[in-house]
Amino acid sequence: MIKTDIIIIGAGPVGLFTVFEAGLLKLRCHLIDALAEPGGQCAEIYPKKPIYDIPGFPSILARELIDNLMEQIKPFEPGFTLEETAIDILKKENNFIVSTKQGTKHIAPVVVIAGGLGVFIPRRPAIENIKAFENKGIDYIVKDPEKYRGKSIVISGGGDSALDWALYFANNVCKNVTIVHRSQQFRAHNDSVQKATDMTKEGKINMLLNAEVTTFKADDHIEAVSIKKKGKEDLEHIKCDYWLPLFGLTPKLGPIAKWGLEIEKNAIKVNNALDYSTNIPGIYAIGDVNTYQGKLKLILCGFHEAAIMMQSAFKRIYPEKNNVLKYTTVTGVAGFEK
């Protein structure tokens, strides 16, 4: 049994910043995450993508943001249970016991759910045997762009992610880049659409509209895809090293949805007027996983929610103590360490 002051479910940027806010109050934290490393979406889905709305950083890569947050919380020595999914929560007297699928149990008086948008399920094309070749030439997200350097790739999709990566890879990274989109119109930003159109005219991108990949050829690894255009019977076959169906990821709350929390539109309802508490006293939800009137799903909003929530959590853990707000500009972080 792992005992701590606060159990944080989700080790994304908001969960990590919660450790910092807790550390300032001398509260211990332990984080649970299904991924193999901290960082959430920033580390798993778009580590190389820039983020532009973090205060003080005109631009920062998602991976760099996570590295900075890990450095920031290092003095507070949080614990981590990684590659394990929290599946059950039990109230026992003044504590909660959170168990993972692997059987690890954690106990604390406060639970903070900071699981981002929950568990991500890729939107797979309805093609036979596609699962057998996932990570064998078929990728739904781009984790390491260098993996595709000098290769021929086919990207399916018409949203921002599909066009952003197509533009990136067509800029002297990949040997050949083909975009396949089922419509004539894109759902991406106009600027990205114009750039992709210009690069198509320059011969840097092969763009196939009103078309979709219907089958693929593979042995141990994908070798080619077959594309059907609207109104045409014959298939067009394109050799490639990788096929990226970038149709997005569907977020699901997973086991959390069965914990008795009030759910609205696949998110946890919280009291934003007070402290981001849920309908179960002692359980809070912050970041993209929660919902309330006026909610903005931004990392910086999650940081704000963590700071407010932690003041309430402290009062719950130490109801007899008065917490005097101290400013790090005066005391420095060292003044808050254990």
Could you name the key traits of this structure?
FAD/NAD(P)-binding domain; four-stranded mixed beta sheet; 23 strands; 338 residues; 7 helices; five-stranded parallel beta sheet; alpha/beta
Structural description of this entry:
By secondary structure, the protein is an alpha/beta fold. The chain has 2 domains: 2-120 and 250-336, FAD/NAD(P)-binding domain (3-Layer(bba) Sandwich), CATH 3.50.50; 124-247, FAD/NAD(P)-binding domain (3-Layer(bba) Sandwich), CATH 3.50.50. The protein is 22% helix and 29% strand. The protein has helices at residues 13-24, 40-44, 62-73, 160-170, 190-201, 299-317, 328-331; strands at residues 2-3, 6-9, 29-33, 50-51, 60-61, 79-82, 86-92, 95-100, 105-108, 110-113, 119-122, 152-156, 176-181, 206-209, 211-218, 222-229, 235-239, 242-245, 249-252, 263-264, 267-269, 283-285, 290-291. The strands form 7 sheets. A 5-stranded parallel sheet has the order 6-3-2-10-22, covered by helices on one side. A hairpin with a 3-residue loop joins β15 (211-218) and β16 (222-229). The protein starts with a strand and ends in a 7-residue tail after the last helix. The model has no long low-confidence stretch (mean pLDDT 91).
